[in-house]
Amino acid sequence: MHLKSSSFAILIALFASSTAPFISTGVLSVSMRVFAQSTNSLKEEADRFFEQGNQQFKTSQFQAALRSYQQALKIYQSIKDRKGEGKALGNLGIAYRSLGDYKQAIQYQQQSLSIKRAIGDKLGEGQSLGNLGLAYDSLGDYKQAIQYQQQSLSIARAIGDKLGEGQSLGNLGLAYDSLGDYKQAIQYQQQSLSIARAIGDKQGEGASLNNLGIAYRSLGDYKLAIQYQQQSLVIARALGDKQGEGASLNNLGNAYYSLGDYKQAIQYQQQSLSIKRALGDKLGEGNSLGNLGNAYLSLGDYKLAIQYQQQSLSISRALGDKLGEGQSLGNLGGAYFSLGDYKLAIQYQQQSLSIARAIGDKQSEGKSLGNLGNAYYSLGDYKQAIQYQQQSLSIKRAIGDKQGEGASLGNLGVAYYSLGDYKQAIQYQQQRLSIARAIGDKLGEGQSLGNLGIAYKSLGDYKQAIQYQQQSLSISRALGDKLGEGQSLGNLGIAYYSLGDYKQAIQYQQQWLSIARAIGDKQSEGQSLNNLGYALLNSGNPKAAEIHLRHAIAVEESIRASLGDNDTFKVSIFETQARTYRLLQQALIAQNQITQALEIAERGRARAFAELLAARQQSSSAPPNINRIQQIAKQQNATLVEYSIAWDDLYIWVIKPTGTITFHKVDIKETKLGNIAKDTRTAAATLAEGRGVANNVITNLVRETRSTLKTTTDNAFPLETTEKVRPLPLGCRGNSCLKQMYKLLIQPIATELPTNPDSRVIFIPHESLFLIPFAALQDENEKFLIENHTILIAPSIQVLELTHQKRLKLQQTAQANSVLIVGNPTMPKVSPKIGEPPEQLKPLPHAETEANIIAGLFNTQPLVGKGATKAAVQQQISRAKIIHLATHGLLDNIDEPGIPGVVALAPSGKDDGLLSANEVLKLKLNAELVVLSACDTGWGRITGDGVIGLPRAFISAGTPSIVASLWQVPDESTAFLMPEFYRQLRNNPDKARALRQAMLETRKKYPNPSDWAAFIFIGEAE
What we know:
Layout: H1 30-36, H2 39-58, H3 62-78, H4 82-98, H5 102-118, H6 122-139, H7 142-158, H8 162-179, H9 182-199, H10 202-219, H11 222-239, H12 242-258, H13 262-279, H14 282-298, H15 302-319, H16 322-339, H17 342-359, H18 362-378, H19 382-399, H20 402-418, H21 422-439, H22 442-458, H23 462-479, H24 482-498, H25 502-519, H26 522-538, H27 542-561, H28 567-574, H29 578-590, H30 594-603, H31 607-617, H32 626-636, E1 638-646, E2 649-655, E3 661-667, H33 673-684, H34 697-708, H35 734-745, E4 760-764, H36 785-788, E5 790-793, H37 797-813, E6 818-825, E7 829-830, E8 839-840, H38 845-858, E9 863-865, H39 870-876, E10 880-886, E11 889-890, E12 902-904, E13 914-916, H40 917-921, E14 929-933, E15 941-943, E16 946-948, H41 950-956, E17 961-965, H42 971-987, H43 991-1005, H44 1009-1012, E18 1015-1019
Parallel strand pairs: 1-4, 4-5, 6-9, 6-10, 10-14, 14-17
Antiparallel strand pairs: 1-2, 2-3, 7-8, 11-12, 12-13, 15-16, 17-18
Helix pairs in contact: 2-3, 2-4, 3-4, 4-5, 4-6, 5-6, 6-7, 6-8, 7-8, 8-9, 8-10, 9-10, 10-11, 10-12, 11-12, 12-13, 12-14, 13-14, 14-15, 14-16, 15-16, 16-17, 16-18, 17-18, 18-19, 18-20, 19-20, 20-21, 20-22, 21-22, 22-23, 22-24, 23-24, 24-25, 24-26, 25-26, 26-27, 26-29, 27-29, 28-31, ...
């Protein structure tokens, strides 16, 4: 996170001209004016251009200032005014530095220095050396920066220039601050302050006080930082120095931000922003907007945080300020990181990294690499995270950035901790601790102590863990760092919980909660409430746990509500919140409140999906209470079966059409449910050779499933996960998988399911259970579930209600009457792997046969071969009542932002022939039924919000009924099953029953489940 401080680096000679400002309305070329004007008039015009550049620079019009300085430079050179030439060159260097073009800045300052040395201008020479030092400081070359500032200081002392001496000392302080040597930085700023006071330089005094405040903030002494900034502010206001006042207000905001007082930080940043806008200081305005964005991010207002960062980014780009642009991009990456959208975070950090490298900003490059490492860490790619942190560490060591070096070491420790290498983690944290203590970085010291405590807790050394957390807590309190204090208290609570001391654990979590509420930290408030609920539940007080967990959910839902209608953000952030809903279910069931637990189970799934559908259909998005749930079961005339995985237990509710609700709890403590679910899907698909691109089906299924399945775990109390990636061979094979899953999922409720095979059973799975081919589950008599029941799938009971409402609206309007049938398009080219050349997908001749047969049933013409283009499909799709797509389905973009999944169509014109789920989401469909007769169309990225894939996109686009597949379906048997489905549908309007009969008929000819069990029915049956 880049907090943009307003330090007072002395840009010497910027306002050297005493000529009154003059805005020229027309400029003749220099060559013409030489003959028409005297040298004096030309010098006056050059001075006017120079002063015009100064005024433009003051209001952040850097490009305009460059043009004015260039005009002045041309005239000075034409009249051989060496002093003016050196002055213009120096200011050009200053302007380029402000634009982030440090190499160009250095070139101009070098030219300016040469001229000043040639004409014996010692004062000017010292000024150029100082400005060169500032340019190298911006490049991250702090040693070179210090050398130049030392030379500037020597000249100032030699010629008795006390003003210049004070400025050089201040700039040396800034260079040492960048190096992380805060004690040395403070010494130089103190010397600069003494000189300013001695010569009565009030502006210089204010600058030194401001810079001292920045140094103490870097040290973690926020209270002293605030005292210095307040003194600087008083001087700026007394002088009427609005620029200085805005800078002091900005830095006060940063200091309060570091204290965790985000509301106070925002007040100061707003005042600073007002001043900068009044002055026309666009650069300062962008800085304040960025800092406001950081403050709102910490308050949990992600939407507003992103808006401020976007405004900051726009200003930086308009100014051509590459440094600011890179920082804003990095801050946007930080905001999306906090939202859990790590892919988008990585994109922004990559852009920030590119800019840093382009302008040679080594410090920002190191930060961007570190942030990329953090993003990959959150994605669970710890090896990639370590690589980025190592690169970041190398840069920070090379430029002598000790604080940055410590941060990289700490992040490496965190990554190794997550890999389970606690000893290595401890070594890295110890190194960070040593650096923090050596440079007086109290904040870094506290963080490393806290991380050491976490590592020792994982080693089972709880006493050592508590000692480290206590030390971390002491530092946070000494600094006044409320955010850090709260985190330390929370970690102490976790340590005491591990010791079985629930009373102490609860006390610490309550203290964390108090701090989180005091500073307005919504995210920490939700976490501490969650942890309190967890501790209370396990200490045998489920009622108190319920109260805190309900408060936690209220906080978490308020955070989600702030995201507006952004479905992607809501899905991402829910991954960090789902644990609370599961804990509350446990607390309610412990009190035998079975129906209330069902309400929470329903409230804690597919929330983003339900809100998206409700918004598009202008319906209520409120989660259903128990009465509505019973009404929906009656409305559907179906038995609803809702599952919820609660770590060691599997909860199952059965809601009958009569409204009767029963509950079952299955002990899965010794069962790796996620692995069995994956293996069941894989075993059922074993013999499939289908409409997909993989050659080795089994390997591909296992690789794809296990790389995309995410387990919701309690991040604050790291519970043992029930799912770990395992290599082949499978844990079970063939029918044994199908029987094992039947025993877990169906046998406990078998007597409550309807005895009539035509009666509908709607399963609402949870997490990994979305992988299960329910139709293929086998009882002890080897009967498949589809033989006894008509099966449907729904993401949630509320989504089921919303699809029902959509079906009724479609029947009332009857806008669509055509049938769109696609089969075996001329295949597009796709890359088998990232970086490999694209290859054309194999044709599917049976898919074309399938399309022709189905088209005959509807007396229409299918789109096949070259005619099945993406453009043709998009032209017809909104008018179709039924959409049938028999082609390849791909999940190559499963980890990308938005919804993964594409359908292969024939390319034409400029398009690639791939219809993506994100494109479908933007359509307005009127189809009552979409059949995705392709591979892997029924699943995607499994989240707490359900499966994010093609069915979600088609339902959101307006279709209430979907048929999709769970694996790479065989071409031949699918070409038999699908026409049979439509034949059955002609005789029976119940689509789920039609699919059941088609499966049973297909099974007679193709008995292996891989040939008929992949397809699932989602949504409305009628």
